[in-house]
Amino acid sequence: xxxxxxxxxxxxxxxxxxxxxxxxxxxxxxxxxxxxxxxxxxxxxxxxxxxxxxxxxxxxxxxxxxxxxxxxxxxxxxxxxxxxxxxxxxxxxxxxxxxxxxxxxxxxxxxxxxxxxxxxxxxxxxxxxxxxxxxxxxxxxxxxxxxxxxxxxxxxxxxxxxxxxxxxxxxxxxxxxxxxxxxxxxxxxxxxxxxxxxxxxxxxxxxxxxxxxxx
Length: 215
Ligand code: AMP
Known about the structure:
CATH class of the domain at 2-26 and 79-115 and 176-212: Alpha Beta
Bound molecules: adenosine monophosphate
Strand order of the largest sheet: 2-3-1-4-8
CATH topology of the domain at 2-26 and 79-115 and 176-212: Rossmann fold
Helix content: 40-55%
Structural class: alpha/beta
């Protein structure tokens, strides 16, 4: 099964992708995670990407397309994959189409999570991540039991640089200008299924399964 998750930042793509991994045993490929790992390691690509990420802008197409070209060749992608956060521009979508055509691995579905901006802003500004294990929390909707520490490992919680309010506003306008046109790009190919992303994660997951397993 090969799936693309579309949707604005904070729509829940990562959360749903992780739930789908457990069900289908296929990898989640998040360009955001790959870029954050490169930033943490301080690689030349990471240093270049950080400036864009901290400003809420998109990392240049050639960088993320290069990342995906390498990642899709990994053996774990042969069973399928879930793309989370890629493609984000029409140029990326076209490059992906060419890559997958060459590999004879067409996309089955484009799942689009629909969430209004004001809900996204509240979700993202309250988001906290564990420095040690990556577990995510929300100060209002899913707070850690023990103050500012991770319930799972006791690690320190932090706010991602790009989850600050100003950056989030930039990320949302970048989404509307550059990524939302993909709804049309894939819509014309009749590949998009829209899902209400304001519901609880379990309910959204049920809707996704219904779509993916509908005969
Ligand atoms: P995410 O975790 O998917 O929200 O990504 C965090 C940040 O990484 C984004 O705000 C961008 O700066 C960068 N990024 C992730 N994926 C892409 C992509 N496909 N194209 C360009 N920039 C990306």
